[in-house]
């Protein structure tokens, strides 16, 4: 366990939510609150770049066969679609709060979100012919106008595509949840059941060992005790988890109840299990309260209107 974890647990032990009576923000728990996302100096924020990135995100013409967009797979309500199951069999990770992860797709060398986006866009499954894709987009007047507004010139390059997609993805942020408002001093933001659930989350269930920080994720790789799964997976955010319809990286469970039961049992006996994954003695009421707390991590609605795609 790292130094940060020990500091975190110490803070939680001294500042349980059940004891928060003051309407002022709790400075020690504020580190759990999602604040403004920082955009890097080599890819500064501007609204035109966000709009361009959103359009590219929904445009299937970015893919090799022009039939799969980023949004086709990165939707937390459904497992991966668009690629043969022998190629991608996992439930595509949610991109909610993706800017808060230390690394996104198991790549310890990729530090910036731009590195990850470029690797995925340029991968053999997504964009096998960079020149062809750039040429395809460059032939569309609407795209030339969009790139001109975002970058000052109409030139379309892979780097500009990556910068736009990354800027847009940094705006996919879940924040101002009931939990956030409670921490910031709104006493009635959490119900008694949710406060009990928080205490279970950090103590009896020990969820906080992996799910901590503003994103409720340590960004590390862990084995989650699923049978037949040999790979470790990155700890997912718990922000907006109550909105999901499928859970675990392979969509193994269809409800929060099943997912909580899996972890309370310490994972499946035949599954690869992280040393931190141990059975927790949770009553039925404990589990209900824990799920109620997870619902308190649901942020303000993220707008997902499909944009108008430039016509060829």
From TrEMBL:
Keyword vocabulary terms for this entry: Electron transport, Heme, Iron, Metal-binding, Oxidoreductase, Periplasm, Peroxidase, Signal, Transport
Pathway assignment: One-carbon metabolism; methylamine degradation
Superkingdom in the source lineage: Bacteria
Compartments, record wording: Periplasm
Cofactor note: Binds 2 heme groups.
Residues covered by the Cytochrome c domain: 48-141, 192-298
GO MF term set: cytochrome-c peroxidase activity; electron transfer activity; heme binding; metal ion binding
Free-text description of this protein's post-translational modifications in UniProt: Binds 2 heme groups per subunit.
Positions bound to heme c 2: 207, 210-211
A GO cellular component entry from the record: periplasmic space
Cofactor(s) annotated in UniProt: heme
Pfam family, one: Cytochrom_C
Record-linked InterPro entries: Cyt_c-like_dom (IPR009056), Cyt_c-like_dom_sf (IPR036909), Cytochrome_c_Peroxidase/MauG (IPR051395), Di-haem_cyt_c_peroxidsae (IPR004852), MauG/Cytc_peroxidase (IPR026259)
Entry binding sites for heme c 1: 70, 73-74
Role description: Involved in methylamine metabolism. Essential for the maturation of the beta subunit of MADH, presumably via a step in the biosynthesis of tryptophan tryptophylquinone (TTQ), the cofactor of MADH.
Name of the molecule in the record: Methylamine utilization protein MauG
Organism field: Leptospira semungkisensis
């Amino acid at each position: 366990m790292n130094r940060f974890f020990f500091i975190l647990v110490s803070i939680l032990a001294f500042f349980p939510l059940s004891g928060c009576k003051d309407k002022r923000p709790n400075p020690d728990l504020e580190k759990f609150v999602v604040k403004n996302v920082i955009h890097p100096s080599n890819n500064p924020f501007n609204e035109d770049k966000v709009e361009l990135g959103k359009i590219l995100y929904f445009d299937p013409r970015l893919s090799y066969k022009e039939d799969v967009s980023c949004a086709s797979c990165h939707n937390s309500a459904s497992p991966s679609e668009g690629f043969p199951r022998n190629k991608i069999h996992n439930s595509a990770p949610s991109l909610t709060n993706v800017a808060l992860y230390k690394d996104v797709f198991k790549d310890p060398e990729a530090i910036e979100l731009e590195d990850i986006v470029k690797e995925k866009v340029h991968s053999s499954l997504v964009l096998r012919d960079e020149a062809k894709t750039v040429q395809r987009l460059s032939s569309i007047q609407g795209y030339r106008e969009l790139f001109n507004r975002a970058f000052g010139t109409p030139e379309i390059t892979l780097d500009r595509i990556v910068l736009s997609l990354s800027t847009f993805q940094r705006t996919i942020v879940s924040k101002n949840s009931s939990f956030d408002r409670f921490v910031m001093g709104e006493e009635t933001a959490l119900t008694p059941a949710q406060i009990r659930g928080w205490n279970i989350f950090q103590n009896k269930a020990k969820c906080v060992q992996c799910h901590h920080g503003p994103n409720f994720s340590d960004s590390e790789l862990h084995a989650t005790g699923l049978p037949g799964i040999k790979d470790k997976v990155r700890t997912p955010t718990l922000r907006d988890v109550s909105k999901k319809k499928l859970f675990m990286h392979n969509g193994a469970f269809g409800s929060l109840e099943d997912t909580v039961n899996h972890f309370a049992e310490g994972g499946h006996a035949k599954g690869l299990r992280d040393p931190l994954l141990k059975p927790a003695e949770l009553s039925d009421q404990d589990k209900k309260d824990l799920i109620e707390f997870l619902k308190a991590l649901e942020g303000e609605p993220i707008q997902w209107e499909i944009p108008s795609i430039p016509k060829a």
